[in-house]
Design a protein that fits this description.
The structure is a single chain. The chain has 269 residues and is of the alpha/beta class. The chain has a domain at 5-66. Helix content is 20%, strand content 21%. It has helices at 5-37, 48-55, 62-73; strands at 80-84, 91-96, 102-104, 108-109, 112-117, 130-132, 139-140, 153-155, 162-163, 176-178, 185-186, 199-201, 208-209, 222-223, 233-234, 247-250, 255-256, 265-268. The strands form five sheets. Strands 1, 2, 4, 5, 7 and 9 form a six-stranded mixed beta sheet that branches.
Amino acid sequence: MKISESGKSKKKWLIVALAIVLVIGIFAAIGVMNGSQEEPEYSEDSGNEEDQSVYSPDSANEEDQGEVEEVEADSDYSDFVWMKNETGDGIVIYGYNGEETEVQIPAEIDGMSVTEIGEKAFYINSFLTAVNLPDSIVKIGKDAFNGCFNLAEVNLPDSVAEIGEYAFCGCSSLIEVNLPDSVAEIGSSTFLSCTSLTKVDLPDGLNKIGMCAFSWCENLREIDFQDCSGLQEIGMLAFSECGNLGSISVPQGCKVEDQGENSPRIEYY
């Protein structure tokens, strides 16, 4: 079958027309894409100024900036976990989420006195090297600083009256402890395995030293009982494995239980 010259001509024009349509479509698509990347224009009545004030990085007003500063001002206790005590008249520190090596316990939180370091508050804290307690603290709970092997310095203010069991157990960097006169009892294992401890100042009002209180304090060389005339009891193994202590002199009438191996000689005054 032969195609006429006129048929061939129509076919050529059809191909050309399709090519033109295709080119126009491509340029139109490019124009739409470019237009989508342009910034939108706003009329004077479009609220442009208001929109810019919201999204501009410099849009924070003075009132907002003041609120931010207030939050920063509270950061002195923002790393602490705390709650009110049972009577509702004081604050108990139950945890610490910071990584500071030297920690200052706040004297007040939300206008209330911080009265207690709670149970396991700093348990096995590897960052802690020094802690400063305010005069408002009256109690250090069980295991409060247990396992803080880098803790080398702690002040115990005169307000402290109670120190719980295992409170400083395993604080192997602690060198010296000065117990305030308000402490009447040293609980069981309070200073167990404080292997760097060399000196302890005992409180005048002390009446009991619990079981294993200073056990494995192998470098303990100085502890004075001369002002502890009211001491009534030294628990089992309280000074076990304290071979460098030599001897201790306790008041007449004080009950001293078996101290086990490598313990100091007991004398009475």
